[in-house]
Amino acid sequence: MVTGVLGSRAQDTRDAAFVRRYEKGNVIEWNTGDYSSTFNFQGFAKHPSNFMLAANSNWYTGFFLNYKWVALQYNWGIPGTELDNKVKLKHTSFAFTYRRPKISINPFYDFYNGLLLQKRRRSRNFDAFRDMRYYTTGAKLMYYTNTGKFSYQAGSTFGEQQVRSAGGIIVTATPQWQRINWVSPNRSLIKDSLTYTLLSSDPQWVSLIAGAGYNYNFSIDKGKWIVSPAATISAGGLKEVNNHNLIQAVFSLQGWINAGYSGRNWYSYVNAHVQYQQTNLIIKKLNGYGDGVSVTAGYRFHSLPKKILGIL
Fold it and tell me: Is beta strand 50-54 parallel, antiparallel or unpaired with respect to 103-118?
């Protein structure tokens, strides 16, 4: 995985009694965590049958380096921690972030080359769907209020100091494209006719959702300890690309919390997050669910006295 971060360190006009920048602007981090992603296809009205696909998620670990305006991150899966450790499936992810005190823009791309088919509801037994591919790409835009006293970065990445407790409203918008590509459809794998019809039609759709939420940074001991819970709710519409169906509804909920130590040189925090999205395709509901936990430990450092390659 490779990520990038762009921002600036222009004159800070925020209230220093609430928010302060750290003197050292570069960081190196170690992180580890676990995540899960499931896709549940649910019928309407007289066709309530469910069908669930899941990413073969696992525990991961890795490192992150942010030096001036460049950031690089590399994570790898820990062997033996997969949802089904007898199956090897590929997941590719890319993200980029442009961040200012009032806004952030986060383009993203995810590709799952193979998914797991749950044999029975609430069962831990799976079959490998090696030729089922899921793509998604888009951008998450976020706008923050009360930035004179509230720092989203202080609670999300521990990159600034929240000296006194404060919060702000978050306004979000996410344009997105998604596609499910079943390379070799086979009726013996999916008994439900509606689900088979949907997945074998190479469905893809574009959507736009917008919403709002709230994030509050609880500051303890002048910002040395931070607890930062947040939640957002969004709604919008989607249009299926390969047919003339009408625009359908999309609904999304997100929640997360970060908690840990934020010092001048060292910092460490725990993150937990959950996301639910209901997408109403023309013949099935696609309910996407994801959650995860992670631990991050980082060190802040000054820039070198001379530029690297004349640009950094």
Answer: antiparallel
**Residue located via tokens 């999304």:** 252
Residue that the structure tokens 């996301």 belong to: 275
Question: 309 in a domain, yes or no?
Answer: no
Residue 160 CB neighbours (<10 A): 22
Q: Give a yes or no: residue 218 inside a domain.
A: yes
Residue 220 covered by a domain: yes
Is 145 domain-assigned?
yes
pLDDT tens-digit profile of 23-42?
A: 999 999 999 999 999 988 87
State pLDDT tens for residues 123-159: 667 888 888 899 999 999 999 999 999 999 999 999 9
The residue type at 167: G
Please, where are the H alpha helices in the chain? 152-156, 193-200
The pLDDT-based confidence of 119 (bands split at 50, 70, 90) is low
The CA distances from residue 188 to 89, 184, 193, 300, in Å, are 21, 12, 11, 55
Which positions ≥6 away from 161 have C-beta within 8 Å? Answer: 19, 20, 21, 22, 151, 154, 223, 262
* Ramachandran category for residue 13: left, alpha or beta (phi over 0 → left; psi -120 to 50 → alpha): alpha
Torsion of CA 198, 206, 3, 74, to 10 degrees: 0
**CATH code for the domain of 127:** 2.40.128.100
Per the structure, the count of domains in the chain is 1
